[in-house]
Hints:
Layout: E1 13-15, E2 31-36, E3 50-52, E4 64-72, H1 82-95, E5 100-107, E6 117-124, E7 134-136, E8 163-164, E9 167-175, E10 183-191, E11 196-197, H2 205-232, H3 239-265, H4 271-287
Parallel strand pairs: 1-9, 3-5
Antiparallel strand pairs: 2-4, 4-6, 5-6, 7-10, 8-11, 9-10
Helix pairs in contact: 2-3, 2-4
Amino acid sequence: MTSSFRTMMKTGFFWVPAVTTLFFLSSCAPKIKIGIVHPLPALPDTARLVLLSFEDSLTGQPAVYIGNIRFGDAGLSTNCDYDEEVGMLTNAARKNGANLVKITFHKAPDRLSSCDRIQANLYFDEGCRDFERQFPWSSKRRLDWKDFKSAGGDMKDTGSAAAYTHCGIVYRYHVLTNFSKPYFSVKAYMNCRSSWVRADQQYRPDLLAHEQAHFDLCEVYARTLRKKLREERPGPREFPRASERIYRDVLRQLTARQQAYDIETHHGLNRTVQQDWQERITGELIKLHDFAD
């Protein structure tokens, strides 16, 4: 039996007060500075890479420090939002043999720059997964019990619960001026450090499948949030309040679905209903494919 209550998380409301000057944006990439002190052979695109955000702490010391990378901008530019820069960051890391990236500095766009400014350290460690604190939902990565890192399953007050998956939705946005289009990013995440499984339950693939569906439901509602934001398209002035309203509405839907899922499947023990739910969730992901990212 599982006990799973999910919360939707949000970070980084980046709101810059409106200015009266109309800025003209040039289409240029961010300035990238890479300082490599210990290069290693490049890693394939399929190699596991752990990304620690600015908010995540780096516990322990990775085996090899490879170098650092900086994204900056001398003025207003485009094609340099947070997700795009993280993509460039992970590509550069793999090319230099790094499988662990720790963001050490992040400054959101403002009146002086439309780019996210990011600095990160690059490392290599055979046990890079031990440093992982959270990761985004991906169709290419399914949960396994190593993702459940909390010791909560060893505590006596877990009752009859066999596992707990802490997943949620993180969204960030920024609005530069009254004349610029709001930027937003939405992702479903699994929090490894808050998720747990009892040691005597790790042999159960049916339990893992039940927990995976909880994570998949988070992705369903991440896509739902993207869909609603894109369809409603609130303007720069309205975006903070409108996005908060939409977010709260999606949060209520997600919470209700997670609770209904556990109740109807009897926490995964009713195999027939569990299978029905998994097929239903898969169908919803397919239906919302256009809003996958």
